[in-house]
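Lab meeting tomorrow. Please check the following:
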Amino acid sequence: MKRLLMLTLIPLLLIGGCGRKNPVEEISPAKSNVKVVDVATDESMLSWPTWRGPKRDGVVPDQPLLTQWSDEKNVLWRTDVPGRGHSSPIIVADSIYLATAIADSQKQQVLAFDRATGKPIWTTDVHTGGFPSERAVHYKATHANGTLACDGVRLYTAFLNSDAIIASALDLDGNILWQREIGKFVSKFGYAPSPVLYKSLVIFAADNMGGGYLAAVDGESGEIAWRVARGNISSYSSPTVANVGGRDQLLISGCDVVASYDPATGEKLWSTPGTAEATCGTVIAAPDRIYASGGYPDKETACFSADGEKIWSVRTKVYEPSLVLNDDRLFAVSDDGVAYCWDADTGDVVWRERLGGKFSASPIVCNDLVYVSNLSGETFVFKNENDAFKLISTNRLGDDAYASPAVADSQMFMRVGVGKGTKRQEQLVCLESETP
């Protein structure tokens, strides 16, 4: 009877992906023959062009920014967003772009909105059908988790579809320019990472239990420039690129390490044990320091040198939200609602404070003020003042907030949920202070 039961279970496990492996075919720059070149960009139109802003670290360029709002106060406009998605808004010239997914019709879409009015400009169906099964996606997740990236000419995104990660490029009018399967994907909880741009490349992460990888794609043609294997572990962090220690480094946490690669070639520069098996937060960096946190099942927030040496480590779990750095103070808000401030050089706790609620969104910092939203639609604004926590305001907008805000020209754009259950409606909201 036991043997018969096991024989019955084996096919079910294989169907669920538990035993499925997809060996990663690595691609070198020599094999692909894709050239990496500098790309001229108009920085004036790229206000908030990628996940976590212009430098991919949650730091807002210096500008006045409101600290108080509500559903009625300091709302310039609001517009409905179809479907569901944790894709955060990006700001390019006079438009706001988002990814979303419509579960009933199995559509994965990219949306454009007018920045001045919030009116929809266009909707592009990137995929129809091909969604993973419900058991292969976490109940909190969506089929459009990743934030878009834009180089001023093209929009880039990637979706989990038909058991693979499929990258797409669109022009700013919503026309699909190319699509490329960058690798297979065995889903445990869904796909989360956002792409990062480096020169003429678009780089995607896809850690998964069937065979994880990093892949760089030529932004103009969609050709794969390089692809490197990452092992058979499910993790969810987005990659980032930063100049640390005088060289460009592609950085990512997860799979029980913090790792650095040459973004032009995919060559591994170093790999240091740390954080956790599964991480969600994006690594951040200073000119000579790197900071990362995880995760599951381990709990660690750590600082590394430019060459990967672990400088300090604390047993603090920050899983979904990313860290943010402000001068010599490192800030984080844990998933269960505790705000932390560390000395960025030593890892000493400066203070910790319970905010309340659960958190998935990542914080931003502007003019020494930290902004972060919880899953009940409350956004806390606080600062470190004389090495003590100071709450500036608590602001409610809608009923939930999974996405992180985008900021440009003293306006803040937030994707929130209004209502509950089947009556829940996502909205994009533009906040602007009534007084300068």
Summary: The helical segments are 2-16, 29-32. Residues 1-17 have pLDDT under 50 and may be disordered. The CA atoms of residues 12 and 289 lie 46 Å apart. The first helix runs from residue 2 to 16.
